[in-house]
């Protein structure tokens, strides 16, 4: 089984943003050592409790601290940017770290309406133009603009020997169809979707059109997992993240709460129901339980790879969760 890591750089109540970012480096290094296939880091803007607003900056640092693991964005929010700039940035990363760079692409704003307006103009218009923005980006990577195109003589320098691998990330049928039409690999974010991704992933495979980037469909499923030595301990650790999601719904949750803070947080009956629903979307347990659950998921969704996001209050619990999973799935 191929396992990978998605990191949102969460900030716990005992951390600064700097602490959280350096913990991200440690996580990538651990994934490199344990045999995880890839490490992706997310892009968020002015969102409480999340430290990474610029994946490309973190990837430059992480690339220098790791040796083997593929590294990438999960995702760069393309409607905020000009494709040429993204091509330059990721070509530079691919020049520094050959054959290791992924470029996950998303169309979400990654923050509030105010943050979106501060970051870019005409965001909604650019969301509608997302397919065209991808085409332009791919032309820069392939260096195949038509001769009469305005950018036919423009190169996204430095141009690497092995170009970055673009992925489409999404949680909907629309994103799957787009990935299939463009002939790009597709990552389905089950961890942030309430729909069953199996049908969506199957539709991507059925509609896939081979391209310069990819001859056959390639799929990845992202799921939230918390693993510990015992099921009881895993559930206790997972409570911090679950309570944090409830807090964020209410405009609270500046940081991931400690286990004690999470246990003492007062929930309404509606919030208790919501918490149980979200718990049901996660995989929580001891190593053998996690192993079986992930094997079942891979069989159900028929995906090439599973990417895991784990948020805990204590960074050591997060590292340990990935270690325990590697012990039973990557040895």
Automatic annotation (TrEMBL):
Residue ranges constituting the Luciferase-like domain according to the UniProt record: 1-299
SUPFAM superfamilies in UniProt: Bacterial luciferase-like (SSF51679)
Source taxon at top rank: Bacteria
Gene3D superfamilies assigned: Luciferase-like domain
PANTHER family: LUCIFERASE-LIKE MONOOXYGENASE (PTHR30137:SF19)
Family statement drawn from the similarity comment of this UniProt entry: To bacterial alkanal monooxygenase alpha and beta chains.
Name under which the protein is recorded: LLM class flavin-dependent oxidoreductase
């Amino acid at each position: 089984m191929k396992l990978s890591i998605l990191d949102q750089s969460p900030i716990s109540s005992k951390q600064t943003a700097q602490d959280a970012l350096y913990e991200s480096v440690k996580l990538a290094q651990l994934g490199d050592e344990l045999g995880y296939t890839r490490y992706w880091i997310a892009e968020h803007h002015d969102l409480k409790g999340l430290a990474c607003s610029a994946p490309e900056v973190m990837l430059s640092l992480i690339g220098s601290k790791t040796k083997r693991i593929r590294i990438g964005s999960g995702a760069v929010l393309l409607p905020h940017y000009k494709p040429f700039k993204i091509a330059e940035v990721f070509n530079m990363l691919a020049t520094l770290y050959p054959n290791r760079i992924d470029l996950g692409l998303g169309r979400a704003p990654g923050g509030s309406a105010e943050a979106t307006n501060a970051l870019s103009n005409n965001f909604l218009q650019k969301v509608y133009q997302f397919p065209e923005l991808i085409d332009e980006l791919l032309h820069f990577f392939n260096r195949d603009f038509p001769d009469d195109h305005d950018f036919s003589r423009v190169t996204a320098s430095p141009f690497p020997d092995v170009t970055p691998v673009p992925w489409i990330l999404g949680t909907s049928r629309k994103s799957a169809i787009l990935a299939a039409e463009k002939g790009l690999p597709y990552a389905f974010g089950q961890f942030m979707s309430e729909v069953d991704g199996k049908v969506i992933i199957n539709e991507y495979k059925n509609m896939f059109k081979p391209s310069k980037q990819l001859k056959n469909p390639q799929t990845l499923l992202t799921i939230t997992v918390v693993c510990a030595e015992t099921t009881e301990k895993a559930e206790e650790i997972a409570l911090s993240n679950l309570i944090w999601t409830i807090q964020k719904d209410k405009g609270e949750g500046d940081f991931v709460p400690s286990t004690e803070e999470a246990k003492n947080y007062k929930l309404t009956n509606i919030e208790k129901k919501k918490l149980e629903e979200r718990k049901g979307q996660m995989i929580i347990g001891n190593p053998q339980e996690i192993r079986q659950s992930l094997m079942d998921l891979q069989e159900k969704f028929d995906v090439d790879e599973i990417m895991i996001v784990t948020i805990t209050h204590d960074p050591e619990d997060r590292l340990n969760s990935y270690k325990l999973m590697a012990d039973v799935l990557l040895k």
